[in-house]
User: Which sequence fits this backbone?
């Protein structure tokens, strides 16, 4: 009777005949009634699957829901109509423990069908953790409606987990089969847990665990490989310029890391310059690449012509002198830009993670760095193999005096080669600004590793640099899980030392006259 | 070297005697400092505690510079990782000093140092055993750097890793050691290292007497090292080393075992650096993994370059002068110091390949 009256009042107020069939509007007034009516209303709201019910029930559980007579007021508005309603004089809706327990179930079910995918994901997560066979129907309904793959995946896992605790063996088997198809640590832990309580299902469970293990091993191997390649590409970028200045020219440039740092700061400056014109901002990173090449290249040319030229044939002095130059550059940048990290934003197309089949996650910016490193390598190889400059450079490396008699201006070639190597270091800085902190000592962390790469790969060989950097990168990441990052570095160093015992000139040694130099 | 100078010395006074006289005078002046420190406050000649401990520190640096010079200046082995030998010696002494703290630590554990109690150690790791004995700790300050120098040197020299390759390798070595010592589970105090030392050989460290004692010990080490190096470079061993520096393949073809000569001088140099580090630690009262930083080693190399490599006096002179400028500048214009240091690297290599000693020689001529 009361409900009929309410309905009438409601109809008058909202002037919306269709509301009679609306489960949400139908159940809502029950919340203003006694505890039994409330519990029933909560159940029905939960079953309705209506997105509007979620905020109401949440407010109810948090004691924020108000009522005046039979109208429910939420956030100064009538919950049914959405019309503004005065909260003054309204009383808080009180609930007891029975209603509270009904609320918990209803909230979980409603979140499963919430309009917000993140909320649905969280709900699936909590259902997964609560592990109750009662959730099965709700989850099945939710999965049928789900359109976002990552949420669906989580829901299916939650469903399997719920099935695992169902009383019927057949349902359990279903759950085990689904869990066996998943490739997550959670699923594995769940199965191992079920192993203790279901002695009769042991063969199925063990088979499922084995299949998860196989997939997890593959996934781990793939991710380690990716991390290794990612580290390797960073090393490649840092070492490539070095392979040219050190490997090809025989000039040891300890300021190389600072050229990388200059490249990273150029990226920062270009980005700040682009801030004035918003349409240019997403393009600031691609613009930084040639800019960083020019800045670092010019700095390199100046260093070679101004200082290094006077020290040819004295490698130890060159080493010390360039170390001093690096120190000065670092301190100059520290005074100009401050010692704290500078933020370089990644463009939208570089952010986020890529999910490959098998649950392998790949961060996009690292993927781009790999691609970029390979592009730079190709560029360097092309410049050395295909251009006039590359030809002259190779000639000077092979025999300086004969090259000079052939009319090659060796001094100019030296400067250009050094500028080229330094410019590549600058481009490395652009890439590093995406995955590392842009700070004055950015380059120091990479310089020792880069030298190791060049020595390992073979001085003077770009292919050797590629193999060396990727090899060291992967080796590092393979050792890391069981030895820790620091010991991995130490181990790699020891391995290189032992390796040099066998092949003192690196993996790809230069043959012929140049090797004697 | 001094023979050449002797031939061109002015007015008949042999330059060799001049240099010796200068060295003895320098040592005598240094030896006076702790005595002047004993004068009452307010006295015009009184030397402050700070001056004594800073000078003591420089003396240890001078020994490190000598060690580097012996390898670089005479045998042409440029090590960019000598700071590692120095720090290892320092850690050996630090371990002894930590053991001497005994139950006086904050946690009051009878055996374990504070950081071990803090990290939940139950008992002393095996490599800490014996460090409560002073002679053992001193032996380790010699042997551990020596052993490391032997292994790295042997692996490198036998496969003929020379020049910049060896420099980079040693730099990587000290870098790797720094990373390792930063770890807490190594049992060396992680990034805090060792500090809060109480006493050494029964003398409390914060007294004037202890400071003077350490100062004289460092001075004796410097004098001893100078004497030893003088002996090494003036005998046949020294001649062979110089020959190796100038024409390694030729020496090898003459039938000398270049590897053994280089290895011997490198190990000796590493041990000297280790002893210098062992005396450095009680003087400054702290040792932490920062001492392994590659920058420290390369800074020590520049002392030698500034003073004049290939001359023993030059190394000592360089260590004192560069550090004097550093101490002065870092308090007056800290931002400027790195420019000056970087500038030193450039200026010395380009303009003053013989360092300050070369400058004096040119003036003398």
Assistant:
């Amino acid at each position: 009777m009361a409900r009929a009256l309410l309905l009438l009042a409601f109809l008058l107020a909202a002037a919306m005949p269709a509301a009679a069939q609306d489960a949400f509007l139908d159940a809502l007034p029950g919340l203003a009634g006694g505890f039994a009516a409330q519990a029933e209303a909560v159940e029905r709201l939960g079953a309705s699957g209506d997105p509007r019910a979620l905020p109401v029930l949440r407010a109810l559980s948090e004691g924020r829901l108000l009522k005046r007579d039979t109208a429910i007021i939420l956030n100064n508005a009538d919950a049914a109509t959405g019309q503004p309603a005065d909260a003054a004089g309204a009383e808080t809706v009180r609930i007891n423990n029975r209603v509270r327990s009904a609320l918990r179930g209803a909230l979980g079910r409603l979140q499963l069908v919430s309009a917000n995918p993140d909320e649905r994901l969280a709900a699936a997560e909590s259902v997964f953790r609560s592990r109750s066979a009662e959730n099965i129907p709700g989850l099945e309904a939710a999965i049928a409606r789900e359109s976002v793959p990552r949420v669906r995946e989580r829901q299916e896992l939650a469903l399997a987990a719920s099935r695992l605790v169902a009383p019927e063996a057949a349902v359990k088997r279903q759950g085990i089969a689904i869990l066996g198809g998943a490739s997550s640590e959670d699923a594995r832990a769940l199965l191992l847990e079920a192993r203790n309580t279901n002695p009769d299902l042991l063969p199925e469970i063990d088979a499922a665990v084995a299949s998860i293990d196989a997939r997890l091993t593959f996934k781990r191997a793939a991710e380690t490989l990716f991390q290794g390649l990612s580290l390797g590409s960073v090393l490649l970028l840092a070492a490539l310029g070095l392979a040219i200045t050190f490997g090809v020219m025989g000039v040891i440039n300890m300021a190389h890391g600072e050229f990388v740092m200059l490249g990273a700061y150029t990226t920062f400056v270009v980005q700040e310059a682009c801030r004035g014109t918003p349409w240019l901002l997403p393009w600031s990173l691609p613009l930084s690449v040639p800019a960083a090449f020019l800045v670092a290249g010019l700095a390199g040319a100046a260093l070679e012509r101004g200082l290094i030229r006077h020290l040819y044939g004295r490698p130890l002095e060159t080493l010390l002198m360039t170390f001093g130059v690096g120190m000065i550059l670092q301190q100059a940048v520290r005074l100009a830009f401050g010692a704290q990290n500078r933020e370089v934003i990644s463009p939208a197309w570089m952010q986020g993670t890529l999910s490959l089949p098998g649950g392998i996650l790949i961060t996009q910016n690292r993927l781009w760095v790999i691609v970029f490193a390979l592009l730079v390598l190709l560029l360097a190889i092309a410049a050395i193999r295909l251009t006039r400059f590359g030809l002259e450079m190779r000639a000077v490396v092979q025999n300086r005096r004969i090259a000079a008699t052939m009319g090659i201006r060796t001094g100019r070639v030296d400067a250009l080669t050094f500028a080229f190597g330094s410019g590549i270091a600058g481009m490395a800085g652009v890439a590093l600004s995406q995955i590392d902190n842009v700070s004055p000592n950015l380059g120091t962390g990479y310089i020792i590793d880069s030298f190791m790469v060049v020595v390992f790969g073979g001085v003077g060989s770009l292919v050797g640099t590629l193999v060396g950097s990727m090899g060291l990168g992967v080796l590092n990441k393979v050792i890391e899980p069981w030895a820790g990052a620091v010991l991995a570095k130490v181990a790699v160093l020891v391995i290189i030392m032992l390796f040099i015992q066998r092949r003192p000139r690196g993996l790809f040694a230069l043959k012929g006259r140049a090797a004697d130099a | 070297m001094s023979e050449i100078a002797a031939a061109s010395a002015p007015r008949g006074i042999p330059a060799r005697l001049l240099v010796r006289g200068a060295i003895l005078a320098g040592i005598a002046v240094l030896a006076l400092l702790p005595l002047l420190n004993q004068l009452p406050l307010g006295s015009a000649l009184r030397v402050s505690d700070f001056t004594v401990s800073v000078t003591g520190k420089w003396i240890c640096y001078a020994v490190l510079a000598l060690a580097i010079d012996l390898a670089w200046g005479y045998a042409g082995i440029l090590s960019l990782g000598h700071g590692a030998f120095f720090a290892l010696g320092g850690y050996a002494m630090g371990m002894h000093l930590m053991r001497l703290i005994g139950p006086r630590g904050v946690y009051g554990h009878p055996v374990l140092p504070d950081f071990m109690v803090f990290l939940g150690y139950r008992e002393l790791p095996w490599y800490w055993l014996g460090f409560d004995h002073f002679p053992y700790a001193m032996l380790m300050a010699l042997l551990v750097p020596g052993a490391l120098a032997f292994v790295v040197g042997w692996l490198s020299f036998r496969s003929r890793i020379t020049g910049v390759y060896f420099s980079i390798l040693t730099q990587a070595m000290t870098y790797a050691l720094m990373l390792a010592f930063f770890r807490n589970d190594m049992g060396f105090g992680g990034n805090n290292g060792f500090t809060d030392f109480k006493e050494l050989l029964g003398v409390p460290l914060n007294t004037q007497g202890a400071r003077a004692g350490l100062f004289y010990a460092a001075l004796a080490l410097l004098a001893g090292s100078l004497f030893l190096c003088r002996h090494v470079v003036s005998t046949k061993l020294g001649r062979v080393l110089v020959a190796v520096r100038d024409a390694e393949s030729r020496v090898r073809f003459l039938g000398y075992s270049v590897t053994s000569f280089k290895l011997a001088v490198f190990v000796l140099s590493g041990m000297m650096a280790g002893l210098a580090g062992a005396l450095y630690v009680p003087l400054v009262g702290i040792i932490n993994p920062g001492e392994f930083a590659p920058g420290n080693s390369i800074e020590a190399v520049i002392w030698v370059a500034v003073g004049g490599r290939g001359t023993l006096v030059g190394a000592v002179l360089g260590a004192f002068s560069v550090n004097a400028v550093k101490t002065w500048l870092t308090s007056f214009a800290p931002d400027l110091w790195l420019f000056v240091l970087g500038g030193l690297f450039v200026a010395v290599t380009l303009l003053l390949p013989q360092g300050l000693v070369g400058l004096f020689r040119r003036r003398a001529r």
User: Anything to note?
Assistant: The interface with chain A takes residues 72, 78, 152, 155-156, 158-161, 163-165, 167-169, 171-173, 175-176, 179-180, 182-183, 294, 298, 301-302, 305, 335, 338-339, 341-346, 348-350, 353 of chain B (CB under 8 Å). The beta strands of chain B are 194-195, 199-200, 203-204, 286-287. Chain B is about 70% helix and 0% strand.
